[in-house]
């Protein structure tokens, strides 16, 4: 905007393009793209839950997702079969005293024991149902329940073949474990979590791109690409269960990492962040023309001549550089502008006159003379932004963003893209500095003579303020 009337300064003004800027996150994406890398800022569109991956890894390892088909039998049928195996006359139904209670208890105990031994992988089997009425059926496959209960009953009645039936139950458990090992859900879930941690850590997705945590619960959706997680979890599972081809899966994971490194190297975000910080500092010190300028304002207070230096957007005025200062009478809507003269003569320090400011002094504080006679006046300072730390994603550089971007690309290229020709970027930087320098001339005419021969514009000096 243009503040004041026709005699007022243009706000903002200063170095050309000085108002153009980018945040660090925007510049980082542009630098990585200039280096030829893909900078993915959004999560993958194809996602899966932990539970889905666990089932797929179990299947890839050669085990069924669950063994659900079972054969059941009633308590009465099992009791009758055990009585026959013990040599009792079943048709009469006259068993020894306490036989029915003993066998029913052994059947319940056998089922509970086998259920506990099988149910080690979290929720595959249904809950253990009551097994007391003659019409109750087994919760799990009746074959091992019958074998174990028969072995226990024969041992009670001191039959020599009790061990045969107990071994039959153990063989059934071993066969089942070969088809689906105990704890497999917990084991594979841990492998899926480990695989996520490895992907996040190795591919550097949790620094600058995402803020990720590995998913753990069955219904949690993975925040990273599920494909490498599945490959790595399958490799862990096949190695754990002694499959000979586990190395093939590990090789596929390494190939995926190699492909992703070609798209964007690990630690690229941190490398470019540091390059941007260094480029911001180097540009500020080496290329004054690239420094951003800003109008800083100070609201005058009647009778107060000393003020703290203003800040704008987290930036200070660079006191080491020349700048202009103007007073706007009547506040931001006033039409009367006066350019202040730098320096306050010593004789004016004891002068108690008041009026609109005419002079200023640069020091630890910003000082004006004479003492302001109104609370409505505003002093505008056209100065360069001081050098600030460029270390957060929302921060903006102290210099023109184009210069900072090109410098950062030159600094990051030897680390991330050593085969890249940095000389081309250097030429782009020279052209950018040259264009900015030429643009500052605007309509000024170059006089090809010595500097002493060039006319020097007179500094506006305000008239002596009446006593």
Short description:
The chain is 42% helix and 9% strand.
Please explain how this structure is put together.
The protein is of the alpha+beta class. It has three domains: 24-36 and 272-441, no CATH class; 50-62 and 183-263, no CATH class; 75-179, no CATH class. Helix content is 42%, strand content 9%. The chain has helices at residues 24-34, 50-60, 75-85, 99-118, 142-156, 162-179, 184-203, 226-240, 246-263, 268-286, 401-416, 422-441; strands spanning 293-299, 306-307, 311-312, 315-316, 324-329, 336-339, 341-342, 359-362, 366-369, 378-384. It starts with 23 loop residues before the first helix and ends in a 26-residue tail after the last helix. Residues 1-8, 10-19 and 449-467 have low confidence and may be disordered.
Instruction: State the order of secondary-structure elements, H for helix, E for strand.
Output: HHHHHHHHHHEEEEEEEEEEHH
| Secondary-structure-derived class | alpha+beta
Number of strands: 10
Rg estimate, integer Å: 42 Å
Global mean pLDDT: 78
Terminal CA distance reads 37 Å
Beta strand %: 5-15%
Tell me the count of domains.
3
Fraction of residues in H or I helices: 40-55%
Main β sheet profile: 4 strands, antiparallel
Number of helices: 12
Salient structural properties:
four-stranded mixed beta sheet; 12 helices; single chain; 467 residues; alpha+beta; elongated; 3 domains; 10 strands; disordered C terminus; four-stranded antiparallel beta sheet; 9% strand
Note the topology.
Blueprint: H1 24-34, H2 50-60, H3 75-85, H4 99-118, H5 142-156, H6 162-179, H7 184-203, H8 226-240, H9 246-263, H10 268-286, E1 293-299, E2 306-307, E3 311-312, E4 315-316, E5 324-329, E6 336-339, E7 341-342, E8 359-362, E9 366-369, E10 378-384, H11 401-416, H12 422-441
Parallel strand pairs: 7-8
Antiparallel strand pairs: 1-10, 2-9, 3-4, 5-6, 5-10, 8-9
């Amino acid at each position: 905007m243009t503040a004041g009337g026709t005699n007022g300064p243009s706000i903002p003004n200063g170095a050309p393009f000085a108002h153009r800027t980018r945040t660090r996150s925007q510049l980082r994406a542009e630098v990585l793209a200039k280096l030829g890398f893909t900078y993915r800022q959004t999560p993958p569109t194809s996602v899966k839950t932990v539970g889905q991956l666990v089932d797929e890894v179990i299947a890839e390892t050669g085990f069924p997702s669950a063994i659900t088909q079972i054969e059941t039998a009633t308590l009465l049928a099992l009791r009758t079969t055990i009585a026959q195996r013990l040599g009792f006359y079943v048709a009469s139904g006259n068993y020894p005293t306490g036989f029915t209670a003993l066998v029913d208890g052994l059947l319940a105990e056998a089922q509970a024991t086998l259920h506990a031994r099988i149910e080690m992988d979290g929720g595959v089997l249904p809950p253990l149902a009551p097994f007391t009425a003659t019409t109750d059926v087994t919760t799990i496959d009746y074959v091992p329940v019958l074998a174990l209960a028969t072995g226990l009953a024969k041992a009670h009645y001191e039959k020599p073949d009790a061990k045969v039936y107990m071994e039959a139950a153990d063989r059934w458990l071993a066969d089942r474990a070969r088809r689906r090992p105990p704890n497999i859900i917990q084991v594979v879930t841990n492998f899926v979590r480990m695989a996520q941690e490895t992907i996040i850590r190795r591919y550097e997705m949790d620094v600058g791109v995402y803020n990720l945590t590995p998913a753990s619960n069955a219904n949690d959706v993975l925040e990273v690409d599920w494909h490498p997680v599945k490959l790595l979890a399958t490799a862990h599972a096949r190695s754990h269960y002694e499959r000979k081809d586990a190395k093939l899966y590990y090789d596929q994971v390494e190939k995926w990492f190699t492909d992703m490194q070609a798209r964007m190297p690990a630690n690229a975000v941190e490398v470019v962040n540091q390059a941007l910080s260094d480029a911001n500092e180097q540009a500020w010190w080496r290329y004054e023309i690239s420094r951003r300028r800003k109008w800083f304002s100070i609201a005058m207070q009647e009778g107060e001549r000393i003020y703290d230096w203003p800040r704008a957007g987290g930036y200070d005025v660079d006191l080491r550089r020349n700048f202009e200062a103007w007073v706007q009478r009547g506040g931001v809507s006033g039409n009367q502008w006066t350019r202040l003269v730098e320096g306050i003569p010593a004789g004016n320090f004891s002068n108690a006159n008041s009026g609109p400011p005419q002079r200023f002094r640069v020091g630890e504080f910003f000082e004006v003379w004479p003492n302001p006679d109104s609370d409505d006046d505003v002093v505008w300072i056209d100065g360069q932004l001081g050098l600030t730390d460029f270390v957060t994603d929302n921060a903006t550089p102290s210099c023109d963003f184009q210069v900072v971007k090109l410098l950062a690309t030159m600094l990051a290229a030897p680390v991330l893209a050593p085969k890249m020709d940095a000389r081309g970027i250097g030429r782009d930087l020279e052209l950018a500095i040259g264009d900015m320098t030429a643009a500052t001339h605007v309509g000024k005419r170059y006089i090809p003579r010595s500097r002493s021969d060039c006319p020097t514009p007179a500094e506006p000096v305000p008239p002596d303020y009446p006593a």
